[in-house]
Amino acid sequence: MITENRFQCHTYAFIVLNTVYDAKSSMTRRQQQQALNALRQHLSSFLTLLLSAMVMCSILLVGATSASAGMIRDAEIEAALEGLIAPLEEAAGYTRGTIKIRVILNNQYNAFVAGTHTVYVHSGLIKEADGVLEFLGVMAHEIGHIREGHVQRLDEAAADAGATATLATIAALAVAAGGSGDAAAGVLFGGTDQATRGYLATRRRDEAVADEIAMSLLEQTELSATGIRDQMQRMTRQRSLPESRQSIYYSTHPGSGERLQAFQDHVDQSEFSNRPAPPSAVHLYDRARTKVTAWTEAPQRILSSSSPLSDTAEFTVYARAIAHYRRGALDKALALMDQLLANHSDDAFFHEFRGDILFAKANPEAAADAYEASLSLRKHNPLVQLNLGRALIATGKDDNLPKAVMALEFARRGEPKWAFVHRTYGIALGKSGRLAEADLALADEALLIGDRGRAIQLAKRVLKSPDLEPLVHSRASDILFRYGADAAN
Ligand SMILES: [Zn+2]
Which of 23, 102, 266, 314 has its CA 20 to 30 A from that of 321? Predict the structure, then answer.
């Protein structure tokens, strides 16, 4: 569906997954396991393969119909949100950067934890939350779940799916299980055969514990709990609504009445309750929210809106550039980014997006320059390294290949489970005449998409090459040793 040298980000790809299954929360463990296995099989071979061949840009939107789950992978948004929760994370006893935030493409307000250290946030929550204090309050609650290990077992369940597939698996399962995020993770992965009543009792207890931790984290970081208190108030009002009109967050976070009281008591006695959010946090949240909006709302709506999308003028311009880009109006998008960069030449993410536009305009040399400018400001961004590598390959100049290989080595280190990175790395090595290493990289790709036969074939070819470097030799031997027996059977 995509050729290697073309970037067509503005037509961002939605992957259609025909995985329709009935994952009600009343499933038995055996049914849960079957659903999980079926989905895992689909995702790890099929989705990863498609993802690998898929267009990329600074933002990656991966969608699925039916099970209706999609992820937004974007370095800027993830960095902003992870930066925001860093003080809470440290207060909870984790080193900065331990807890990851992943954004799920879904307009419903919801957040949940899965795996040991990941908070999944719906794009709808980011857009709807009444400011950064509410976002931070909800995050503090989710960090509480993480600290208490309320859904630890997910990692085991999804351990052998590739990284991208794992994320999509989680998202798909969460939504498929009646659209109940937090609960879905618990039901599907908590491995409980308990009756619903017992399950709900556990849930209520878990919610109360997570709230206690949340309040303590907010207090330690001198943040007001009024955001989450207000959110709880809104949720409590949903009690009187028919079930169909209650939000997912309401159904997955039981006991809102008692929870509201606990937060109200905390707000009444905390000395930080009247303190506004730090301006830097407000700014960072605004940026993340604006970008999420620009990528998830209809471009036409962004462009025709008469009111600014953000309180900060340049974020509104940024959103318009993204909307133009998504519609394929690349010159307009580029003009706006040039305008922004004239005043913000030190903004790594503006450079990154400018690179995406130039690449989409089939100008790989200029795109590579833009990516390099971005990387000079923010070195550890595997997605930009990957795009730099691709842009350099696309220039068709042999002189650029050593630099492309280097960039792709960085990308591979940052995203080791992304098959497409290995493939691109293999292409750069192959074009550089480093054929054995290229085969090895393609063998790694084959393993990640579940094609062991091809991996073995490639590993055998590697071992036939003369003068192999010890590392290449041992990695190829390792593949044969681990998977060769399977192929023989
Ligand atoms: Zn919760």
Answer: 102
